[in-house]
Amino acid sequence: MEFTKSVHRSQVPVACQLCELDNKIQWKCKQCNLLMCNKCKDKIHPKFQNAQDHDIFNIKDVGKAYDVKENLEFNKIKCDLHAGQTCCLFCSTCQNLVCPTCISKAHNGHNFLDITDAYTRKKEKIEIIQMQADKKIQKILDMEKELQRIKTSEESKYNKAKQAISLHKVSLKTSIDLHADLLETQLEENRNSIQKAIETEQARTTVIKEKICHQKLLCTRNITESQSLEKVFRGMDQLENTIQQDFEPFNMKFESTPVFFPRRIISIGALLEYTFANVANEQESFKIKLEINRKFETSLKHIHNLHIGKDAIIWINDRILKKVQKIVLKENHVEIISSFDIDINAIGGTIYNDLLITSGLTYLLFLNEKTGQDRSKYNIAPLLTLVVCITDQYVFIAGMSPTVTNPSSAGRRVVVKFNHEATIRKDYELDENNKPLFIYPRGITCTSNENIFVMDWLTEDNEGQIVVLGKEGKIITYYKGNPSVNSPENPFKPTYIASSPVDLVFITDMLNQTLHVLSNDGHLLTHINTSKYGILYPACVGFSASGKLFVGCASSSANIAEKGKLYELTISCQYIRK
């Protein structure tokens, strides 16, 4: 029996089976089993023999349950085994249609159903199987989607690792060239020193030699040419005195030219499945070094937010002055490309070539030089946006209910994750015990393993912690400061959080003049006292694609004329296994 479910799903256009011209199929004749266009249904099909008794249906209705049931002729089913016999029952024991002869010969004692009932049961079972198939297909589609996400994520990790290797290669080459140049300079200086000492002694030998030769020549002339014995004797005495004179001994010991001994490079890095999880008690094994390349004074009083874009573009923000600037760093000054008077909370980065910012609305804003402020599709209503972070795949937004004005206020605190198209959303709000994950989220970043780092303020005095979540929202750990830096007198008051291209998480502890550095699993690797580098009040950090570290600073409230400083630094890290 024919049970057509979806003629309209065919991927190849089917022409009318009568005229073979019109592709717009609208009708099907059950008896002829033909698909027809509207014209052939009215003009051609009526000419068929007994056409008036045929059943013609709109193809949209073909295969529907009521249609099939009404048109199936259960009393005309011929038996395949016994000619001339018509099937009268359905053997549920053998799962076959049977005629009277079948029953008497092979199905005696079996269980039987009316064909209509058997058909209904089969149809119901088919519908259940189809639902199961649909669920399985959806599950496979979800798996395909997850596999694509994993593939994209791994490709992103590959690109980051490849870029890190390339950057490290350039850095190593530069370091080797600098070291070789230093060795050559030292060798040249050593050579010049030795040559100068030798040449000094050579000059002394020349002077003494010439003096002796002169007295010898003079004496010889007096003997051979002079007629005066007095001159002869005097010349001999002078030569004798010259020869017998003692002179300062020559220096024959000099500093020797050093020999170059090549050294083998022990390691330049490795590809490891390594998460620093065992570093918590081995901070001394992680070494980090900063070198200030350039220092700039901006026109802002403070630099509260910082984003390093492409093509040497940098965005900075002073929340107190309510000003955002797009700048370029020149040789010895800051060039302002554009400036916006706007009150914002945070800068998330660029997406679709526009800057994405939060300004306390229910949605994010795009900031564009030509169009100004444009509403984005990232909307978390009824929550208000507070901070934002953009990765290669996602946009993370920390938002709160309008009633939340401080850590002790009542209301929701939520971190929302969107894909770039804002078509997929995931909320992080409650832990496994149905308790709020956050108190007052004021910063957010994400690492390549998709762990989420939320800078969370706990008090109105901005004492805080870092909440580290896995991609599914499960708490991995909390970071509440470093005992060697923070204490009840100097509490941990984080002001900014950002991740580096090599998956390190930097947190500014401005009042303690400290940068805290965490692994991608939230473990403390080290801390940096920025005041040792002359960097005071580090308020925010950012990273260029090449790995340069930028530190934006607040200025002292005691000095009205002081401006916010911006530092560009080279950062080098080394993890030493013990």
UniProtKB/TrEMBL annotation:
Family annotation (PROSITE patterns): ZF_BBOX (PS50119)
Matches recorded under SUPFAM superfamilies: B-box zinc-binding domain, NHL repeat
Transmembrane segments: none
GO MF annotations, alphabetized: zinc ion binding
Keyword Zinc: yes
Keywords carried by this UniProt record: Metal-binding, Zinc, Zinc-finger
UniProt-listed Pfam families: zf-B_box
The keyword Mitochondrion belongs to this UniProt entry's keyword annotation: no
InterPro entries for the chain: 6-blade_b-propeller_TolB-like, TRIM45/56/19-like, Znf_B-box
B box-type domain location: 11-59, 74-115
This protein's name: B box-type domain-containing protein
Organism, as annotated: Mytilus galloprovincialis
